[in-house]
Amino acid sequence: MPRVAARGPQAFNTRTGGHMPTLAEKYELLACIQCGRCTAGCPVSLRTPLNVRKLVYEGQIGPGPAGAHERPQAWSCTTCSTCTERCPKGVKPMELLIGLRGKSIERGKALPAVRDALESTFKHGNPWGRSRDKRAEWADELDVPIAGEGEAIPLLYYVGCTPAYDPRVQDVARALVRLLEAAGVTYSTFGTAESCCGNEVKRMGEEGLFELLVEGNRELFAGHDVGSIVTGSPHCMNTFLKEYGEPVGEVVHYSQLLARLLDEGRLEFKGSVEKKVTYHDPCFLGKHNSIFDEPRSVLERIPGVEFEELDRSRERALCCEGGGGRMWVEAEEERGERLADTRVKDAVDLGADVLVTACPFCLLTLEDAVKTSGCEGKIEILDIAELAALAL
């Protein structure tokens, strides 16, 4: 793939004579006391060779022999942030794992599926290998507004790559449009001009490509005087909020906007959904951004819904294993039951008719898990937007 030179603290500064920082310096690993809470809390450590504590220790003591940065187990990480949340010393092991991935990519050791996803993002603005001119096809039968050149956008609906291209998740985007229209919300999209936010690109370690995406998206936003942004994915929301430098305006996940519209009386449900429902907290909505209440608020106000929590929920929720580039990676030496399978079985044991989530990656991994866990016909997987649209 065309390489983009990384711009960041890894580069040797020939003008100032600066040195390339060690892993311990760059990721502040010397604060680690080797308590092991990171590995103990890691949701994939029991299924893969990933040992977060060991990788942090190796980073503390030095770079080691040639090739030590090329740790295949780093690709098992879902970047769910559990290790970072549980560290008593404020170390961020997840950032180290992303850095190790970056080292692998710099050395030309990217996994084939990762390489293809990154190349597609560079060429077409999405990791799914689809052309840019098909990005707005999800809305072909809808009257979805697309901002004209230079047109101000008070509220931008940033669709995201997966809702735009994946046939299953396109249904979620269409359901959200129905909800926005029912509430009388004025919004616009970028249509085919929209590009990847870069959240998964950064977590796959391609810092240079991520910076190009940030630069391009910032220019696009500025050219339309964007006020607020509502995203269809918590991954997009996370990167806009935390990794684009200066704020790009108010950024909310669609579940937050729906909760607000219900509070204001602008969105009303006239129908009923007579289902027992439980909710899977997406990591990038919950653990990364502490958004737990708004999705539940929407669910609990849908007429007919009987809502019940899973045992492991909110901060303790299981990861679906779809984040951190894992949609394009099969971790090495996987063993045991996938976490998404466990999640589906937990929902079935709870007696739920529907397992609901609010993330395109979670939706896809959980739907796959219904088949692989032997739970077909026992439970339905829906996005909150889809469930809410049923009650319009």
Word description of this protein:
A four-stranded parallel beta sheet has the order 5-4-6-7, with helices on both faces. Strand 6 (354-357), helix 15 (360-372) and strand 7 (380-383) form a beta-alpha-beta unit. It has helices spanning 23-26, 37-41, 52-61, 82-86, 93-106, 112-124, 161-165, 167-182, 199-203, 207-223, 234-242, 254-263, 293-300, 339-349, 360-372, 384-389; strands spanning 153-158, 226-231, 250-253, 276-279, 306-307, 354-357, 380-383. It has three domains: 23-106, Fumarate Reductase Iron-sulfur Protein, Chain B, domain 2, CATH 1.10.1060.10; 112-261, 3-Layer(aba) Sandwich (Rossmann fold); 269-389, Rossmann fold (3-Layer(aba) Sandwich). The longest helix has 17 residues, at 207-223. It is α/β, with parallel strands linked by helices. The protein is globular and about 60 Å long. 39% of the residues lie in helices and 8% in strands. It has 16 helices and seven strands.
How are the elements arranged and paired?
Blueprint (H helix, E strand, L loop, with lengths): L22 H4 L10 H5 L10 H10 L20 H5 L6 H14 L5 H13 L28 E6 L2 H5 L1 H16 L16 H5 L3 H17 L2 E6 L2 H9 L7 E4 H10 L12 E4 L13 H8 L5 E2 L31 H11 L4 E4 L2 H13 L7 E4 H6 L3
Parallel strand pairs: 1-2, 2-3, 4-5, 4-6, 6-7
